Amino acid sequence: MIGDRLDHLIKEVHPKDRDAFSEREIARRMAEKAAPGEPTLTHASISNIRNGTTRNPGVDSLRALAKFFGVPVAYFLDDDVAELTDRRMAELKAAAERAREVESLAQVLEDNDVRAITFRLNDLSTASLHKVAGFVEGMRASEGLTDHTDRKAR
Known about the structure:
The protein is mainly alpha-helical. 65% of the residues lie in helices and 0% in strands.
């Protein structure tokens, strides 16, 4: 159970622009940020907890992991706390994604040409909008663009 929760945190808690931290990276970063006398873990200890070889890690180990991932120590021990924490993390991720989408939309709509075309799409039927979307995707492909963020690189 503790290993499953640690595995979940490793997979879910990392910067949006990169993959999960490795166990070695967690151990290194934990050691770098620890105050003198504060507990840390080796990558082997992290691996053993994660894979269930160490089924009952000590309080210091759980404190170090909780601090690294920004969760309460009880996350590893209490189902209700884990569920509440996971739900809150999911809400925060969703809110961050919505904020990125709004920012992206605002950037796109700053372009006068895009805004003019967008306004002209208003009131078209669903079938016509699908045709326009297909045409736009074809044009993007012909220009080597895969998503809206590629537009900035041109």
